[in-house]
Write a structure and sequence with these properties.
Strand content: under 5%
Number of strands: 0
Distance between the termini: 54 Å
Order of helices and strands: HHHHHHHHHHHHHHH
Mean pLDDT: 86
Low-confidence stretches: none
CATH architecture of the largest domain: Alpha Horseshoe
CATH class of the largest domain: Mainly Alpha
Number of helices: 15
Oligomer: single chain
Structural class: mainly alpha
Amino acid sequence: MINLGTKIRELRKKRDISQEVLAEALCVSFQAVSKWETGTALPDVTLVPAIASFFGVSTDELFDYDRFKTEQKLEEIVTKAAEIRADRPAEAEKIIRDGLRQFPGNEILLNNLLYTIDSPERRDEALNICKSLVEAASDDAVKYDALRIMAGIYSERGDEALCEETLEKIPEIYFTKLELAAGLLCGEKSFKAARSQLALNLDSAVEMLAIIRRHLSESGDRDGAEKAKTAALSVVEIIKSFEPKWYDDGCRELCEKLLAD
């Protein structure tokens, strides 16, 4: 991102005006303009709209902010970290933290940082990040994911009351955008949405059946527990036959963990 003073100098020279002319228009000294352009001082925040208006640009353009390029860069950072975080979480964390130095406080990066510090000894750190995201995130998906992770941390600590209180803040969802897209769109878009939703549904089915199996087993209902396991294994077979690569890439470990005796 370009320095604000550099941008002001570029715009001034493009208009072919002196520092004195700009200073007079903004009711400041030409020395102030000089300090902005050399980077030794910044304009008062109240002057930013006036500077943008004088040059006929938006404040985003004044700060050389390109939303599309920023989103592209964020996606690159997140994707790069996600590719290695399962095997090399420390390296993935460094990628995200380097990104945060470039985009301080970015909620997407902070949300992804949580997935690189997923260890019992760092629960307090993760909890603090979650709390800040719940309070300040503009993206509901980020906010609700932070609440989900918070609830998980409280559960791991054995604090069921706080876990339940946190879960109550997550709205009940009766349909997803993917489900609507699969039913309402056409062609490839409908197909991709249906396939993605199916992946979520099958993963969820295995997890829920494993939880039911554990509960039945603990309550002494061995027959019911065995039926739940059989049902879960049937879902796993559907996953393996329908999309073997998907099973190998991410589902195998989940299935083995949930269905372990």
